[in-house]
Design goal:
The protein has 577 residues and is α/β, with parallel strands linked by helices. Helix content is 35%, strand content 15%. The protein has 20 helices and 17 strands. The strands form three sheets. Strands 1-2-3-5-4-10-11-15-16-17 form a ten-stranded mixed sheet, with helices on both faces. α3 links the parallel β4 and β5. It is globular.
Length: 577
C-alpha cells in the first residue's frame, strides 16, 4: 500500500507550518531562491513548495487579517513522514505526507486529513488544515489525490523523484509518475491528465488511505503509544475546492473511521436538484462566459483588459453564427449570452467573479485536463487534440530546460499552464482562436460517439453519494463563487443530505468568491472577503460537536460587509454566533 517512505525533521530555523519563512517570507513577491537553479536541494524545494502553496490559497496581504484576525503562522517544530500510496488497481500512486508536531498529545489523539485543493501538490492544503491543526497539537496528513505536480519530461525521459528532485527513467527507482506513453512521445505529461486512473472517481478513497498512513506514521513517531487506530484516534477531514469535494466523497465511505468533515467551496457532483457536473458548467463557461461578461458592468479588475474584450466580441460573433445565441450587434449578442447563462442557473455574482477564470483562461485548461482524466486517455490520445509542453514565445512547443524541470515539484499547480509548461491546442484557428477546441470539449459532454461516451462514463463515476449517517458535516461556500457556483455544487448536495436526515450544516457566505489568494489584488480585496476564516470557524464548531456534544450551527446565509480597501475586521466577517 505504501512505498518509498521518507522521514525528515523540521526544527529551529525550519518548521512544519511555513518551512521557517514566517509571515514576512510568505509575503515576499519573489519565491525562495535556489542556490543552484538546475539542482536545488530537497530543503530548498520544500521551502519553495510551501511558499507557493500558501500564496496560492491564502490572502496574506497587509490588511487581509491573516495571522491577526484569523489563522496562525506560528512556528511549529516536528517531523514529516512521506510516501507513495497506491489504491488497489490504480496504475499510478498518489503522494501522502504526514506532519506530526512535537506538541502532539498522545492522550488526546487528533489527525486532520487534508486533500490538496485543485490539482496542487502535496502541500496544497497547508493553509487550510495545518494552520488550524498543528498549533493545537493535531497531526495533519495530506494527499495529492492522484494529481499534483509530479510532471514528466517525455523528451528527456525524466521525472520527479520521491524527494522532489529530478531523476532519469532507468537510473532511479523512485519516480513519482511515469506515464504509459509511446517511445517517441514529446512534451510534458502530468498525473491528473495522463495517469489513466480517472483519479476523481477515487478521491474519497485517497482521503481514507492518507488517514491510514497517518496512523502508521504516528506509530513510528510514538512507538510507546502504539497502536494508533481509527478507534482511538480522532479523524477530521477538511478540504476546499476539489479537496472539499474529496472529503465529501470520503464522508460516504462505510465504517466509523471518520469523525467529522469540513468542506469549503466543494466541487461535488450530487443528485440534488440543480446539481451539475464540473465538466458540464466549465465547458459551458469556457464557451459562453466571455461573451456574456461583455453585457456586464463593474467587473473586477484585473483581468478584463481591452484585448480580452475584443476577443470576447469575436466569441459573441462566433456563437451567433453558430446559432447558439441571437442578436445582430455585439451588445445584443452579449445580452443574449448573459440571459442564456442565467437560464442555466448562473447568477450575477458568479458571472462577475468568473471574470478571473475568463481572463486567465482557466476554463479551457480545466476542461482539457478533466476530459483527459475522465476518459482515461494517455499521452497523445486526447480526443480534442490537446497536449502539453514547454513553449517558445510564439507558443510553439520546445524541450523543457533543466532549470524548468527542477522547479516543477515546487512551482507546478497540477494543471498547466504554469511552471514553464503550456497548453497546446491543435485546433487553434482565426478568427476565434480557441473556439474549435472548446466546441470539441463541450461535445464530449453533450455529444455522441465513442469518445463522448467514454468521457461521460468517467464523469458518472465521480457522482457523489450521501454522507454516512451520524457523521457531522459542515459545508461552507462563498455566494459569489465564480469557479464552482454553489447552486451547482454545495447547495444541492447539502439539501439532498439534509432531506435524507444526515447531520449537515450549510453556511453560504455573501461577498466571498473562490480564490482567497487573489484578494491581494486591490479591486478583489475591496469587493470580496476570504473564505478561510469560515473554514477555521467550521473546524471549531465540529470540534465542539465532538468534544462536548454541541449541536452543529444552523444553516445560514451570512450577510457580510466588504472592507472597501480598509483592514479586515470581525464586523466585516459577521461570523455566526
Amino acid at each position: 500500500m505504501f512505498s518509498n517512505e521518507l522521514r525528515s525533521e523540521h526544527r529551529g530555523s525550519d518548521d512544519l507550518l511555513t518551512a521557517g519563512l514566517g509571515l514576512a517570507g510568505l509575503r515576499s513577491m519573489a519565491p525562495p531562491a535556489f542556490a543552484d537553479a538546475s539542482a536545488p536541494t530537497v530543503d530548498e524545494l520544500r521551502r519553495r513548495a510551501m511558499w507557493g502553496s500558501w500564496r496560492g490559497i491564502a490572502d496574506l496581504a497587509p490588511g487581509g487579517g491573516y495571522g491577526e484576525l484569523f489563522g496562525s503562522l506560528q512556528s511549529v517544530p516536528g517531523r514529516e513522514y512521506a510516501a507513495f500510496a497506491r489504491l488497489p488497481g490504480a496504475k499510478q500512486p498518489h503522494r501522502v505526507l504526514a506532519q506530526i508536531p512535537d506538541n502532539f498529545d498522545t492522550a488526546k489523539r487528533c489527525v486532520l486529513v487534508a486533500p490538496a485543493s485543485g490539482s496542487r501538490g502535496i502541500y496544497g492544503a497547508v493553509s487550510v488544515a495545518a494552520a488550524w491543526g498543528l498549533p493545537k497539537g493535531c497531526a495533519v496528513v495530506y494527499t495529492d489525490k492522484g494529481a499534483g505536480s509530479d510532471y514528466y519530461d517525455l523528451n528527456a525521459q525524466m521525472g520527479v523523484r520521491a524527494n522532489g528532485s529530478i531523476g532519469a527513467l532507468g537510473e532511479v527507482s523512485d519516480l513519482a509518475f511515469v506515464p504509459d506513453a509511446p517511445v517517441n512521445a514529446a512534451g510534458v505529461a502530468f498525473k491528473h491528465a495522463h495517469s489513466k486512473d480517472n483519479p476523481e472517481a477515487d478521491w474519497g478513497r485517497h482521503v481514507k488511505q492518507a488517514a491510514e498512513f497517518a496512523l502508521l506514521a504516528l506509530a513510528q513517531a510514538y512507538p510507546q503509544a502504539a497502536p494508533f487506530t481509527f478507534e482511538n484516534t480522532r479523524i477530521i477531514a477538511v478540504g476546499i475546492s476539489n479537496g472539499g469535494g474529496a472529503v465529501l466523497r470520503a464522508a460516504e465511505l462505510e465504517g466509523d473511521w471518520l469523525d467529522a468533515v469540513v468542506a469549503g467551496e466543494p466541487s461535488i457532483y450530487s443528485s440534488g436538484a440543480g446539481a451539475r457536473a464540473l465538466y458540464d458548467y466549465s465547458t459551458e463557461a469556457a464557451l459562453l462566459m466571455p461573451c456574456a461578461q461583455l453585457h456586464m458592468s463593474n467587473l473586477p479588475q484585473p483581468p478584463m483588459t481591452a484585448a480580452l474584450q475584443a476577443g470576447a466580441a469575436v466569441r459573441c460573433a462566433t456563437l451567433a453564427a453558430e446559432g447558439v445565441i441571437g442578436g445582430a450587434t455585439p451588445a445584443a449578442q452579449a445580452k443574449t449570452a448573459y440571459e442564456l447563462m442565467l437560464s442555466k442557473g448562473w447568477t450575477d455574482e458568479s458571472l462577475r467573479a468568473g471574470a478571473l477564470s475568463t481572463g486567465f483562461d482557466l476554463w479551457r485548461a480545466i476542461s482539457a485536463t478533466y476530459a483527459s482524466a475522465y476518459g482515461r486517455y494517455g499521452v497523445g490520445e486526447h480526443p480534442c487534440g490537446f497536449n502539453f509542453a514547454a513553449q517558445n514565445p510564439d507558443f510553439s512547443p520546445r524541450a523543457a530546460s533543466a532549470i524548468e524541470r527542477a522547479a516543477w515539484i515546487s512551482d507546478g499547480s497540477g494543471i498547466p499552464p504554469g511552471a514553464g509548461v503550456g497548453l497546446l491546442d491543435s485546433k487553434v484557428a482565426l478568427p476565434d482562436l480557441t473556439y474549435a477546441g472548446l466546441k470539441c470539449l463541450r461535445g464530449l459532454w453533450d455529444g455522441q460517439g465513442e469518445d463522448a461516451r467514454r468521457v461521460q462514463a468517467g464523469i458518472q463515476a465521480t457522482h457523489a453519494g450521501l454522507p454516512r449517517k451520524g457523521l457531522p458535516v459542515m459545508v461552507v461556500h462563498g455566494a459569489d463563487d465564480g469557479l464552482i457556483p454553489p447552486a451547482f455544487s454545495s447547495a444541492p448536495y447539502a439539501a439532498a443530505a439534509k432531506a435524507a436526515g444526515r447531520e449537515v450544516s450549510y453556511w453560504k457566505v455573501r461577498n466571498v468568491q473562490h480564490f482567497d489568494g487573489f484578494l491581494g489584488l486591490p479591486d478583489y480585496g475591496s469587493r470580496y472577503l476570504p473564505l478561510l476564516p469560515y473554514v477555521y470557524e467550521a473546524l471549531d464548531r465540529v470540534q465542539a460537536r465532538l468534544d462536548k456534544g454541541t449541536a452543529l450551527p444552523a444553516d445560514a446565509v451570512i450577510a457580510t460587509t466588504p472592507r472597501g480597501g480598509k483592514p479586515l475586521t470581525a464586523e466585516n466577517l459577521a461570523m455566526p454566533k
